[in-house]
Amino acid sequence: MLKFLKILSLIVALFMFAAFTVQAQDKVKTIGNKPRKGTSNASFPVVKGQQIGIKMNAGKKDVQLLNLNFGVENNNSDTLKFKVNVYEFDGVTTQQNFVKTDIIGAIPYGKSRVDVNLEPYNVMAKGTLLVAIEWLNTHKGSEPSFSIGLFNGGTYRNQSGEWKKMPVAGVDFNVKVKKLKK
After folding, report:
1. Residue 3: exposed, middle, or buried by beta-carbon count in 10 A (0-12, 13-18, 19+)?
2. How many CB atoms lie within 10 A of CB 23?
3. 43-93 pLDDT tens trace
4. Residue 88 falls in which region: left (phi positive, over 0), alpha (psi -120 to 50) or beta
């Protein structure tokens, strides 16, 4: 009987340890649009300063942005460099940019999924966001094709400092985020 109680106590202790360990771990989820495979796409000219992005809901509590991912095809032999911006967004205008240090990414030649590691930049955000890429250079005649989904919130473009929504088709930008424990 004593041996049985010791084994039972050990099992209960292990169960409690496992429960507290799982509870203490940060929860990771993906926000934004689903990754797409297929032929639906939208092309945008590469003009320095212009931006392409989508609206995402990060939730009411702070999250850390870990990774930006999207599908694109670059038919230009040059690598296309961009900067990542993450804005507080009210649906019409952007407010503060949560990115405090430039995060530079590149789209290689060909069809690919682009991943940008955001974790080292410690980007914290909450609420409604506009996650965008901003072209760093102009490449005349270059119009990379981004994978899109239909009826998923649309794509926002910034030209000359004004955001315009392209309804119906949204680029497949998505961001992996980690909910922070307080």
Report:
1. exposed
2. 8
3. 999 999 999 999 999 999 999 999 999 999 999 889 999 999 999 999 889
4. beta
Q: Which residue has the tokens 């993450």?
A: 86
- Token representation of residue 116: 């940008």
Q: Which residues contact 104 (CB under 8 A, 6 or more apart)?
A: 81, 82, 83, 84, 136
Q: What is the pLDDT along the chain (182 residues), one digit of tens a residue?
A: 666 656 656 566 666 665 554 445 679 999 999 888 767 889 999 999 999 999 999 999 999 999 999 999 999 889 999 999 999 999 889 999 999 999 999 999 999 999 999 999 999 999 999 999 999 999 998 999 999 988 888 999 998 888 999 998 999 999 999 998 76
List the helix and strand counts (H, then E) for the chain: 1, 15
> Whole-angstrom Cα distance, residue 7 to residue 1?
10
- The size of the chain, in residues, is 182
Give the 3-state DSSP-derived string for 3-37, with helices as H, strands as E and coil as C. HHHHHHHHHHHHHHHHHHHHHHCCEEEEEECCCCC
Which residues are 80's β-sheet partners? Answer: 107
CB atoms within 10 A of CB 91: 10
